[in-house]
Amino acid sequence: MKFSQIKTNCSYCDKEISLKKSQFERANLHFCNVECKHNYNRQNGFWGKQPHNYQGDKEVICVNCGKDFTVGSYQLKISITSDNSTYAHSAVSSVLVKKKQFVSLTREADGTVNFYIGDKNTAPALSGSADQDSGSPVSGTTSVYLGNNAAGARTFDGLIPELEVVEGILTLAQITQYWSHTGSKY
After folding, report:
1. Is residue 64, in this structure, part of any structural domain at all?
2. Residue 113 and residue 132: Cα distance in Å, rounded?
3. Do 174 and 128 reside in the same domain of the chain?
4. Residue 175: burial class (beta carbons within 10 Å; 0-12, 13-18, 19+)
C-alpha cells in the first residue's frame, strides 16, 4: 500500500520534505528532523504561544533547594498507534511532569490496547477507556516506536529509566504484582 505524499517545507530550515497526507494534516508545523523541531521550539518559545494542552502556570517548590518557582501545567497523556492513523490514549493528565510513574501498556495482536498507570504509592490502575482500538497492525511490519513516532515528529523529551518488554498480555493482577516488586523505584 503506497501512501499519497504531500510536498511541503520544513518550518525551521525551509528544506523541501515529503509527508504522508495524514502526517501533513495532523500539524500546522512540519520538520525534516528532530533537530529542526528542537531548534524551532528554542527559537520561538514553544511555537510563539502556549501549546493546546497548556493549563496555566503553577507555583512549585524545588525539592532540592526549597526555592519557589513557576512551571507550566500541562494535560499530558500517552498515545499509541498500530497503523499510524488510529490512536489510543491514556487518560488526559495521566502523565505528570517531574514525577516518576509506573506505566504499563498491553497491546493485543489485533491492536487492542489498555494503559495502566501508577506511582510509588499508588498501584497501577486502568488509565483511559478499556480495550481501545489502536488500529490494525500493518502486516509484515515489526517497528515499535517508544517516545516518538515513525516520522520523528512527536518527540518525548523525558527519561524512561527502565523498560521491560514481556511476552503475552498481562492481567491487571500480574501488572500490580510486578509493580509491587519494582514500585518503590518510582
Report:
1. no
2. 5
3. yes
4. buried
Considering its fold, how many domains does the chain have in total?
Answer: 2
Q: Which residue has the cell 509527508?
A: 19
pTM of this structure: 0.59
What are the strands, taking DSSP E only, across the chain?
5-9, 16-20, 54-61, 68-74, 79-81, 87-89, 102-107, 112-118, 125-126, 132-133
Q: Confirm if 54 and 48 have CB atoms less than 8 A apart.
A: no
Kindly state the helix (H) or strand (E) to which residue 41 belongs, with its residue range: helix 34-44
Domain that includes residue 136, residue range: 77-185
Whole-angstrom Cα distance, residue 123 to residue 159? 21
State how far the Cα of 142 lies from the Cα of 139, in Å rounded to an integer: 9
Residue 167 falls inside a structural domain: yes
Cell numbers given for 72: 507550566
For residues 108 and 40, state if they share a domain.
no
Residue 110 lies in a domain: yes
| Tens digit of pLDDT at every position of the chain (186 positions) | 456 788 999 988 999 998 887 777 777 788 888 788 877 777 765 544 444 444 455 565 666 667 765 555 556 788 888 877 788 889 888 887 777 889 999 988 888 999 999 988 899 999 999 999 988 877 776 666 666 666 666 667 667 778 888 888 999 999 999 898 875 555
